[in-house]
Amino acid sequence: MDVALSITAFPVLARILAELKLLTTPIVETALTAAAFNDVAASVLLALAVAISDTGGGHGPVTSLWVLLCSAAFVAAWMVAVKPAMGWVAGRADAAGEGGSEVWVAVTLVGVMASGFTTDLIGIHAIFGAFVFGLTVPKEGV
Q1: Which of 1, 52, 100, 137 could form a disulfide with 93, with the two C-beta atoms 3.0–4.6 Å apart?
Q2: If we measure between CA atoms, which residue out of 42, 33, 32 comes closest to residue 7?
């Protein structure tokens, strides 16, 4: 319960700071970085807590370890393979001009769904996969 409650309302914080036009100040950048790191760490801990506490169906510590290892492999694979691919797609969408934005949206939606589906197969919530996919989207471009 503590882990679930430690997750911040990061989008709300970012929206409030954007409306106050404070997003570019160094202290706010530090605060948002700390909040993002806190959310990532809490999400990982929450996934681990859910995997460990899953007692239905005879799951035990071996299953929990498997979920943890698969989750780490998922994050590593997405950062190594999907992040550069998304950068390439963003570059192509920029170069394509007007017609590239539809391709960008389609690829992003498919990526979010695939990430969520993969984490659901692993045994953690699909929102974790969508969050990890969001980390692969480049800041510049499109």
Answers
A1: 100
A2: 42
Q: What are phi and psi of 126, to 5 degrees?
A: -65, -25
User: What is the 3 state secondary structure string of 48-108?
Assistant: HHHHHHCCHHHCCHHHHHHHHHHHHHHHHHHHHHHHHHHHHHHHHHHHHHHHHHHHHHHHH
**Cβ distance 104 to 93 under 8 Å?**
yes
Residue in the structure block whose two tokens are 């990532």: 40
How many Å apart are CA 105 and CA 111, to the nearest integer?
Answer: 10
Q: Which two tokens stand for residue 126?
A: 């699909």
pLDDT for res 74: 92
Residues 6+ apart with CB under 8 A from 58: none
Q: Give the Cβ contact number of residue 57 at 10 Å.
A: 6
Q: Taking the CA of residue 31 as centre, how many other CA atoms within 13 Å lie in the half-sphere pointing to its CB?
A: 15
What's the pLDDT score for residue 72?
Answer: 87
What's the whole-number average pLDDT of the chain?
Answer: 80
